[in-house]
Amino acid sequence: MIEADYNIQQDNYRWTDLKHLNKADFVAPTVAVQEKLLAEKLPLLQSQLAENSLVLLNGKFCKNLSNLDRRIVIWEKNQQPAATPAEIQIKAQLSQLDYYKQASLIVQENREVVSDLVLYLPEQVQIEGRVKLIALNTTSAQPRYTSVSLAIVLAKQAKLELEENLLTESVEVNPLSAAPYWNNLICHYYLAEAASLKLKRLQNETKTALHFSSSFFYQKANSILQFTLLNYGGATVRNEIFNILDGPGAESKIYGLSVAEAKQHFDNFLCVDHRASHCSSYQRFKGVYADTSVGAFQGSITVRAETQGNTANQSCANLLLSKTARVNVLPQLKIWSKDVKCNHGATVGYLNEEEIFYMCSRGIPLKVAQELQVEAFKNEIEHK
Amino acid sequence: MLEIKNLHANIEQTEILKGLNLKIGSGEVHALMGLNGSGKSTLANILTGRDKYQVTSGEILFYGKDLLTLTPEARAGEGIFLAFQYSVELPGVNEVYFLRTACNEIRKYRGLAPYSITEFAKIIKEKSAKLGLSELMLSRSVNSGFSGGEKKRNEVLMMEILEPKLCILDEIDSGLDIDALQVVAEGVNRLRNADRSFIVITHYQRLLNYIVPDFVHVIVEGQIVKSGGKELALELEEKGYSWLK
To answer: Which helix (H) or strand (E) holds A237?
Structure first.
């Protein structure tokens, strides 16, 4: 049985109560269950596969269903002789950081362990087109625990565009009587000098899922990161994003969108650490909250004292669609350097009545006008 | 076409319109002039159904229908169009998509078949070219990043596309240079016909050189105190409004 550890930085969890994680006995699927599921889901998964894709079923890598570009090297945990040098380097560097040590319950569980799956792009390998990762979780009558542990390592001047699709299917049980499941993601992304990663994650799991993710982006000099996180599914969702800019000239753009309804709870926790000079970071998060849903955004930017010429920009905009929806926003700047350009902003509001009236006065029905405005609000992030 | 009878209206408990009467026939152009705060824009907003204004008494009949019972979108469907003094920007809403949605909603209201994407593209290309609106502008969000002149031309473009029966132009001349004013006025004049009427709200006689009205009304403290032909505008230009109080 998997249990959550409540002793991790409580302050960082101020808006997400972990206690309900222990209300059910979450059990990881056995090898036999996995094999049976794989046999059942094989035709479906095969039909969804595109060129250059990778499949994880309940967190486990399905080698037979994956058809990645041969230049991408894949290491599975039990097959590689040891962790890759790059991965050791990442973990060693990350483990010195205070916030990594106490980052989340997921890291508590796995801190010293090498990732289950490592994708490695050798120097100067630039993959054309988008690589697709399908992470399919299945529900059952019993509370289930799944864990994804992935590292993506881009060597110097390597380039990758990746789309991660997180989905749920009810195969063993009627969806209405499916027990909740708890999905943990631990993803490390290492960008060596001048590497480039464009990553889009669509979290579209079932609305009873407990989704916890920790994503660490570690960047060396002149590397470029664009990460877009789209949250739609899940009952309780907590995303932790750590971006460490550790080489001069590293750039990152991180976008997030949460679209919540009913009683969904989405909590995005973001930590950007400028550890080198002349780096730039940009974070733009948006949330749309309907019914009695709850959102949270806690974003910090740290600029180290010894650095120069950093720029950082963070903003968080939220749209409440009902009087009972709630959002908590806490931007934090920790600026220790004197030579820095840094700003942040946060807004929380309702639909704009001026815009709605303008649309209605052009013949557009009220409901359509409201939907158009919500779509327009989401567009900026969804189409990144 | 339009009949306003003894209209009283408030905004936040302050009475703005104090018994306004106005009749407009098909194909007529009526200019409405008056000082700031006299009630011109209030009337425009009430005609289009803005809910922050409360009508306390009186009635508005549009082709015999009680306009005050209709929603803003139903009024647009019936043929009321307001060209806004301050056009609203809709960030993230594509101009062409917005116009096609609006146009097809109005066509649906009028029992007409919707335009396909191809049909609409042809229509908008032709109409926007006449107003000097580039394809680049049409690819943007509605009114976002448009100059003052472009916004006004965009209002005229919407008016052409939505084919209203009553067009209310709320200070469409504000912030326009002479060249832009001519383009906007030409667009408006192209739309004039025997079935379409206009209410032109303005402070200045200059606009009326380009959009020549059939009638001019002066509104003072929420009532129309004087009506006349286009020469009344010239008289106002010369004497101001004080002699009418």
So the answer is: strand A236-245
Are the Cβ atoms of A355 and B158 closer than 8 angstroms? Answer: no
pLDDT of residue A301: 95
Q: Which residues pair with B4 in a beta bridge?
A: B22, B60
Tokens of A341: 């350009």
Report ipTM for this prediction.
0.94
φ, ψ (nearest 5 deg) of residue B55: -85, 120
Question: What tokens were used for A175?
Answer: 């969806």
- Say whether A366 and B73 touch across the interface (CB within 8 A): yes
Tokens coding B39: 């009630």
Quote the pLDDT of residue B148.
Answer: 83
How far off is chain A from B85, nearest CA to CA, in Å? 12
Rounded to a whole number, what is the distance in Å from the CA of B121 to chain A's nearest CA? Answer: 18
Strands (DSSP E) contained in chain B are 2-11, 14-24, 29-33, 53-62, 65-66, 80-83, 90-94, 141-142, 166-170, 197-202, 215-220, 223-228
Which two three-digit tokens encode residue A51?
């060129």
Q: Which residues of A247-266 are buried (b: 16+ CB within 10 A; e: fewer)?
A: bbbbbbbbbbbbbbbeebbb
Q: Which of residues 106-125 of B touch A (CB under 8 A)?
A: 106, 109
The torsion defined by the Cα of A105, A111, A117 and A119, in degrees rounded to 10, comes to 110
Judging contacts by C-beta atoms under 8 Å, the chain B residues touching residue A380 are 92
* Alpha-carbon span A291 to A225, nearest angstrom: 34
HEC letters along A125-177: CEEEEEEEEEEEEEECCCCEEEEEEEEEEECCCCEEEEEEEEEEEECCCCHHH
Report CA-CA distances (Å) from A232 to A48, A208, A262: 20, 12, 12
The burial class, CB within 10 Å (0-12 / 13-18 / 19+), for A314 is buried
Give the alpha-carbon dihedral of B230, B236, B239, B241, to 10 degrees: 150
- Of the candidates B72, B81, B98, the beta carbon closest to that of A357 is on B72
* pTM (two decimals): 0.84
**Interface-testing mutation among B88, B95, B100, B162, with chain A (most A C-beta atoms within 10 A):** B88
Task: Report phi then psi at B230, rounded to 5.
Answer: -65, -20
- C-alpha–C-alpha distance, residues A142 and A232, integer Å: 23
CB contact under 8 A, B73 and A377: no
Å from A373 to nearest chain B CA?
A: 7
Per-residue pLDDT tens digits for B34-83: 888 889 999 999 999 998 999 999 999 999 999 999 999 999 999 999 99
Q: Which two tokens stand for residue B228?
A: 């006349």
Q: Sort A307 into a burial class: Cβ within 10 Å, 0-12 / 13-18 / 19+.
A: buried
SS3 A39: helix
A126-141 pLDDT, tens digit per residue, is 999 999 999 988 888 8
Distance CA A115, CA A106 (A): 12
3-state class of B67 per DSSP? Answer: helix
Q: Tell me which amino acid residue A95 is.
A: S
Q: Which one of B73, B97, B103, B104 would you mutate to disrupt binding with A, by most A Cβ within 10 Å of its Cβ?
A: B73
Using CA atoms, how far apart are residues A39 and A198, in angstroms rounded to an integer?
A: 33
